[in-house]
Amino acid sequence: MHACLQIPEILQVIFANLTEVKNSSSVRPSYTTLYHLALTCRTFREPALDALWAYIQVPEVLITCLPQNVRARPVEWAAGGGVVRSIGRLVAADRATLQKYAFRVRSFTFKEDNAKHHVLHESDALSLFNSGSSPSPFFPLLQELYWYDQRDVLLPCLQRCISTTLIRLVIHLKCWSSEMVDLLAGMGKACPNIKEFRCLEPPASACTMLSDIVPCWGDLEILETGAVNAQALKHLASLKQLRELKMLVPEGYIPEPMSLFSVIFSVDTISMTVPSVQFLLAFLTPLQISAKSVQLRIKKIPNAVDLNHLIPSLAKHFKSHVLESLNVGVVRTEYFFGRAIPELTASTLRSLQAFAGLTNLDLSSMHISITDDEILDLVSAWPQMKYLHLDTNWGRGVHLEVTFLGLVGVLERCPKLRSLGMNLNTTASPSPTLLQYTGIASEQVTDLRVGYAECNDVEAIGDLLAEMCPNLNNIYSPRSENTRWHDQDISTRHLWFEGLQTWKKVEGFIVQRRKEQLTQQWVYTHRF
């Protein structure tokens, strides 16, 4: 039979395109179209229903397949002004209808209970997922499960969703009960085909359980979990297809000694959030990691000794010829305001030159003390750099030492730069030499972060930056992101806002200058 006559196959392709999600923020389109196609004829009905029910984003969608007399009217929820959907008593025929549609579901999301959204009453959710006499999973062919609800009373619903067909499992809980830990403990064997597992914000009490279930999965490609033990780490290192690893080490976790073994990892991306530098150093001790992207987040402000020990040690644990992106930062919390992070000096940063293939380096939550000559020596090792952020997001204890001359040198040594951040020293206006700028124009640079630099001459600085970076669109200052402006001395608070607005004027000046140049070029082109 000619391919054009294979109607079901053609319809499946069409319906798959109708429901395709282009990006993570998109809403799946054409549900109304699919609904009407399902009502059109028998040929359209099955493929349309399969596509319509493949991705269920909210649990209350399940009741739409029930007869009208079973669906009760929404009931006002006085607690938050939201609406709770309620259903009547389910009989055997209703459960048969549910199963007929549940068989089509491939991805299911149970969102967090929120008074602002339509939600199912707890008793109705339990009634829908009630197994009755059947021990089989509620969704026999489910491949993706996203669970965000925080209520322990609905754990039976989660258990009914567990299936051997699952390949993606995301669990996000803020509070973990012993019942939840016990339930997850069985998922290693209950879901043997998992390729992606994300367990967000697990407590220290759940880490032993996570260490036990991880070795059950031999097809893992993406893992986001709490801290795991040596056995689990060795298993992960043996997985050739593992490409993304994220580990959140919770407060109170006591690691086992790791100096007695050695593990070699090979992943695309690795991310770790740890309580302190000491813990991170101890955890990295037995590891040799080959990764393109590394993100290290530290919760506790490190002292100078630990911080200056951490940065040089990175070259010992991460393959220098593989690493392309490095982000090392301190997690910012209310507790940190008013406390200064120790400075990173050029001598400490010089150890990062071993990573000659870096295209992205972000140290913006650190305090970096570096001069023009030192930064030029540093960046000369990174000709492929595209995103370089050595500016600071912290307002206290910042030393501004890189001048416009240093900025010019960085642009010359890193011709592929797109985004640049440094603590720029603008206390003096650009020199007459720089005002007649004849250096290269970095046309790819669109974003510039200036730290806590002041701007004392909008036009002079604007003209210079426009020559250096003709396509510059955004100039960032941490002043715009600092929510603690009310802590500033009242006598100087107006200076805080004036500094912010001045850099916005520079940004606007550059954009307007570019528009005028484009207009002049257009007039000249069409005149001749």
TrEMBL record:
Q: Which domain of life is it from?
A: Eukaryota
* InterPro entries on file: LRR_dom_sf
Please give the Gene3D superfamilies that the UniProt record associates with this protein. Answer: Ribonuclease Inhibitor
Could you tell me what this protein is called?
A: F-box domain-containing protein
Name its species: Suillus luteus UH-Slu-Lm8-n1
